[in-house]
Amino acid sequence: FKGGDTCDYLLSSGRFLGEKVWQPHSCMMHKYKNSEAKSCLVDKHIVFIGDSRIRQLFYSFIKLINPQVREEGNKHGNIPFEDKSASIKVDFLWYPEVNGSMRQRIKSWTEGSMAKPHIIVAGAATWSIKIHNGSNEALTQYKINITSIAPLLEKLAKSSDVYWVLQDPVYEDLLSESRKMITNEKIDAYNEAAVRILNSSSRNSKAKVKVFSVSKLIAQETIMKSADGLHLPESSRDTNAMILMNVYCNKIMKPIDGSCCQPQPPLTLIQKLAFCFFTLSIIGYLIISLIHRNNYRKNKSCTDLESGEEKKPVISTPNISTLEMLLHSFCKLGLIMTYFYLCDRANLFMKENKFYTHSSFFIPIIYVLVLGVFFTENTKETKVLNREQTDEWKGWMQLVILIYHISGASTFLPVYMHIRVLVAAYLFQTGYGHFSYFWVKGDFGVYRVCQVLFRLNFLVIVLCIVMDRPYQFYYFVPLVTVWFMIIYCTLAVWPQIVQKKANGNCLWHFGLLLKLICLLTCIYFLSYSQGAFEKIFSFWPLSKCFELNGNVYEWWFRWKLDRYVVFHGMLFAFIYLALQKCQMITEGKGDPLFSSRVSNILLVVSVVAFLTYSIWASSCKNKTECNELHPSVSVVQILAFVLIRNIPGYVRSVYSSFFAWFGKISLELFICQYHIWLAADTKGILVLIPGYPMFNILVSTFIFVCVAHEISQITNDLAQIVVPKDNSTLLKRLLCIAGFFSGLLLFSAVQDQSRH
């Protein structure tokens, strides 16, 4: 990758994704809304100077500011536009030829007292070809005129953004008789002259006239849809206007999904400290490794010179010290985080926009699901939702979610609704798994809580530091963390009701149900009381964790979207364990879960329920309305799947080891995709190998999966060190962690103050 300014790529190269979506080479283009355009261009003066093609671009540009503008008035005259609310002034100046009149107008901005426009967009040639019947003399005069104008434009480029729009090709078959002399051969000659002459005197200067050549590429694909063969169709003009907006506004507005023309963000104080920490860890690990290697060499067998016999001293393999394991883990993590930073913060690798097609989503889904079937093995145990089965469930769901994200399938509502069920199913497993553990084991110790919290949050906290992102940005981890704490508090508060206690007296079961009813009541209240919810999470330091863009609305929305499914998971676990204790279900290998008749009825009901939900989700027309119903109905498809997967004994006795392998690293896959598989914080796609989309996906996916697996190993190793079983040691570690977070909050406050 030769590097360079992404603005150059935006102005000169790209391709169409589908019919109307333009993809610049190497970077992502943001789609500006009216409010964003006004914020960017406030108090700005923009001038479009040229012929009817420039007039078209002028109208498309001002429609980004005010969509109600109509194309009316004198076509062969100046057209003013002003947005008084934002003090934006945009003028079109009718100069259809590059001649003395145009030169005089441009000269007035360079020499007179008149205020210079902030943006100048100029271009003309077709009128010269038409008026002079395509003569060579007209081309010679064009070269002379543009040579006289070029120094003035270059002078303006020192204080303003100046763009010269090259001439688009024409569709000669549609041209009227009066325009037949305008040929693509003539247009290419005029464009070549403009490119050669502009910036000829300032090749080494940073202030240059920006040549807007990308319009030619767009026109080559769309000019055949032109009404007259000369002027571009509206969609192409709109694309050109959006490119202009991205070139100027991206460096001002800094949209996440607009990587074109954005400078690399400066390192924050916390990022610099993290860099120093990882560097010291790598140096420390290398020093320890060298010391061990030297010790090993000293103890190697050597020859006794007197007897000529080889001495073979007993060499005991030294145990790896805690410090060495710690440094080794941080060494690997430091290298991995460097890759994260290079992928999604440095302007080293390319990023491209997503583009959804049905084939880009469904073909990989079918391929992956078929592949998973080929890795079928027998389970070690045949209980409902056994470990292999839940890993398999997490695995295939995670793969489907990954394909959903990279294909941009969120724009297709039926797919979006089904993916919402998969996210809900993760939370259902959270409720089921943690409830089952606390209910059966009765272990409410600090060690268990710290282990779970560390494994859930370690990677996200590191990414918050390295990638300079708020904790709530990785919304799924805060969601799972909060629900884990809710489950823990519900079961741990007095009276602690566990299975062993309940077996002695059945009334305890009613006590637990009462606890669950209280939990459901609290959930219901908070879901319909946004004010109360926001007050709880707006207290410092909770606000520091759950705020996104200055408020906790996003957190409330995410929590509310799947508010009942964790409760459903807890309730299902309670009912299942009660039935298991009463021996009302059979979990032998190959045996159906219930009697044949009951099993068949439940299977039919489950299949019907599963398909009914899919039909409802596929018929969704409004995302907001469907999201309102989702929390209450998502459990239908989840329970239907659980019953279909577990009622038949032969289905319950096998699992896909392929999916289960991915399931074991599902959390790492979900988080890592943000920066090293997708790009621009999931808004785009990372491009390691430009020009070969399929090969790029294969390479980036391989690296992504390997990194996720390695991070999972690092997290497990560090969990054993940071969260020891000994209570006194654990207390010391917790004090150190508290000190670390206090320092992090302090540095964060200093950092925020310096930004403001």
From TrEMBL:
All residue ranges annotated as the NXPE C-terminal domain in the record: 22-92
Alphabetical list of InterPro entries matching this protein: Cas1_AcylTrans_dom (IPR012419), NXPE4_C (IPR057106)
EC number: 2.3.1.45
Any one Gene Ontology molecular-function term assigned to this protein's record: N-acetylneuraminate 9-O-acetyltransferase activity
Family indicated by similarity: Belongs to the PC-esterase family. CASD1 subfamily.
Annotated compartments: Golgi apparatus membrane
Pfam families with a match to the protein in the record: Cas1_AcylT, NXPE4_C
Species annotation: Cuculus canorus (Common cuckoo)
Membrane-related topology note: Multi-pass membrane protein
Main location: Golgi
Entry keywords, A to Z: Acyltransferase, Glycoprotein, Golgi apparatus, Membrane, Transferase, Transmembrane, Transmembrane helix
Catalysis performed (reactions): CMP-N-acetyl-beta-neuraminate + acetyl-CoA = CMP-N-acetyl-9-O-acetyl-beta-neuraminate + CoA; CMP-N-acetyl-beta-neuraminate + acetyl-CoA = CMP-N-acetyl-7-O-acetyl-beta-neuraminate + CoA; a ganglioside GD3 (d18:1(4E)) + acetyl-CoA = a ganglioside Ac-O-7-GD3(d18:1(4E)) + CoA
Recorded superkingdom: Eukaryota
Class of this enzyme: transferase
The protein, known as: N-acetylneuraminate (7)9-O-acetyltransferase
GO cellular component labels: Golgi membrane
Limits of the Cas1p 10 TM acyl transferase domain: 253-734
Segments passing through the bilayer: 269-291, 355-375, 395-416, 446-466, 473-495, 507-526, 561-579, 599-617, 659-680, 692-711, 731-750
PANTHER family: N-ACETYLNEURAMINATE 9-O-ACETYLTRANSFERASE
GO terms, biological process: carbohydrate metabolic process
